[in-house]
Task: inverse folding
């Protein structure tokens, strides 16, 4: 594709830059576990919003506090991210993944006020990232909190239209049964 795109990924050079910057940001959070390296990928006025529980922060100092106290050290050691799909535009990236962990420690960023349960969690998670001036400007992170609470045995799914780990498994295997909640097969 020459100058207009990457022949392997189909991305333009500008899109590849955003893709690589997001990969670096995720590595800094989950592999390197370095607050300052994470912040270096972001604008000074960047913000993070974990939509289901409204955790995160706005601005460098709030994000430094959040990442260093409530996010990076609060990540269970067996945390895994399984990529599902990624869409890269001119100034946005949408990343769909399966996020899994064993709830062996407090996780104020996802489960504020919930003591460790020792239970396994697997959930679909979507991150929508906006870029400006070659850095991350904001992150909107979405997941189904009811599914998390069901898996931690903190929410009884009986009589409710919620599912647990099956939501993640169906993302990875669309051939799994559909409509079980509608048909009354579950719960």
Result:
């Amino acid at each position: 594709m020459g100058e207009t795109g990457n022949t392997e990924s189909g991305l333009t050079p500008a899109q590849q830059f955003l893709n690589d910057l997001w990969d670096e940001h995720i590595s800094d959070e989950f592999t390197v576990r370095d607050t300052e390296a994470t912040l270096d990928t972001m604008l000074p006025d960047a913000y993070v919003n974990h939509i289901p529980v409204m955790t995160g922060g706005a601005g460098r100092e709030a994000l430094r506090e959040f990442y260093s106290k409530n996010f990076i050290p609060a990540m269970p050691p067996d945390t895994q991210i399984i990529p599902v799909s990624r869409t890269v535009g001119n100034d946005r990236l949408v990343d769909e993944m399966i996020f899994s962990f064993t709830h062996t420690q407090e996780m104020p960023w996802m489960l504020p006020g919930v003591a460790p349960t020792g239970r396994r969690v697997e959930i679909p998670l979507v991150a929508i990232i906006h870029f400006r001036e070659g850095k991350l400007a904001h992150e909107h992170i979405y997941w189904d909190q009811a599914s998390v609470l069901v898996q931690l045995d903190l929410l009884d799914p009986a009589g409710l239209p919620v599912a647990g780990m099956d939501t993640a498994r169906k993302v990875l295997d669309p051939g799994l049964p559909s409509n079980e909640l509608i048909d009354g097969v579950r719960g």
Q: What stands out?
A: The helical segments are 13-30, 35-40, 60-71, 145-151, 166-172, 180-183. Confidence is low (pLDDT under 50) at residues 1-7. The domain at 2-183 is CATH 3.10.450.50 (Nuclear Transport Factor 2; Chain: A,). The chain has one domain: 2-183.
